[in-house]
Predict the 3D structure of the following.
Amino acid sequence: MKKKIIGLVDGQSGNIGSIKKAITDIIKDKPYQLKIIKSQFDPYQFSKIILPGQGAYATLIANLKKLKIYNSLKLYLGNNFPYLGICVGMQILSDVGYEDKTTKGLGVIHGEIKKFEKKNLIIPHMGWNSLKVKKDDKILTTTFNEKDFYFVHSYIYEKVKASAVLATTKYGKNFPSVVNKGNIYGVQFHPEKSHKNGLKFIKNFILN
Amino acid sequence: MLKTRIIPCLDVVKNKVVKGVNFKNIKVMGNAVEMAKFYSGAGADELCMLDINASYQNRKTFIKTVESIAKVINIPLTVGGGVSDLSDITNLLNAGADKVSINSAAVKNPNLVKKASLVHGSQCIVVAIDAKRFQGNFRVVIKGGRELTPKKLVDWALYVQKIGAGEILLTSMDTDGVQKGFDAEMLRSITSKLTIPVIASGGVGKLEHFYKGHQTRATGLLAASVFHSGKYTIKKVKRFLDKKGVPVRL
């Protein structure tokens, strides 16, 4: 039986060790194989792609372009192929980001990435916080409602259509913590750092 | 709602967790990898590990220990101790640390904090500050408390926040190891001014101390001996805080 290929994008935006390990554990003894994407790729080759990101929006977009991943990824996402963006990997799905400088995003899930704006709010939003799941989804099932995940970020997804928001999290205000359109998912938290619930979420994405 | 983080701290020499920072009577508490794995499973929100004897020889083993720990836990890992330049930070991040804490080196060379946060992002740069009371002020001390600097704690904390620290780990030398509670006064002196998260460290001996630590607006509470000795489990601390109305991850 031919193995399905899971792609993990190394956009040189933080360490991919933990997520790599999580995926490896999940697909062990299953008909999947993991490939690290470091340059342009054939979008039809992968059954799932995961893109973790830390640091700045502008830096990740610039890295993806420099590594020639950007155009392949655009094509992949244009086909509505399964994608999971983590943290900044989620944020780049938006139209534009305002971290450091104004940067055009992938424009897949409409919205803008803006800094948390509230007086006396400790920034970054760092630590464990819970999800309010808006609707039952095959990957973000309602079992994740009120479960805690690990967050580290200073910017949030704004101006997203309500239909694209699968879950929100409260920090200063309610912000979108899981966004979705078709087979494309973005999570603001780090599932690879979120212990059992995080692993369960990654598993749902890979196996569903 | 954001939960208050309970963070066990492992003081490590090579691959062993030790107690007793005066190098004469170091007591081995256990194997670092096994203890890290245990705490991750027991409900720790984050782990902190410090290389307390970062000599050239020990360093290699320590880095290997970081690698092994990163492989067996799935919660965030902060690593510090002996971080003196950018390559130390890169090496630790590559070994699997999520955050690196810089202490004495930040005082000697603040530019390191700036450079590190530009290269790796503020979110993974923790500035660890040790401080103590001196002539009516809180003053920054370095080299594990052995050297008093002219820097005032609040000024220094605000400065490192400005140049790119993503978080501050504050240890009070006046309360560390005494088990009489976190230094609330010292903590408040910075939490009232900073906009980045502060982790409280030094002094926990009783459950009540965790609650008092939370009241200082510190978002992370770090402790070592009460956990290593088995006096309290992480679950017990969290249940206690939960009953007091403090948001925790249960």
Remarks:
- DSSP finds five helices and 14 strands in chain A.
- Residues 73 and 160 of chain A are 21 Å apart (CA to CA).
- Chain A has one domain: 4-207.
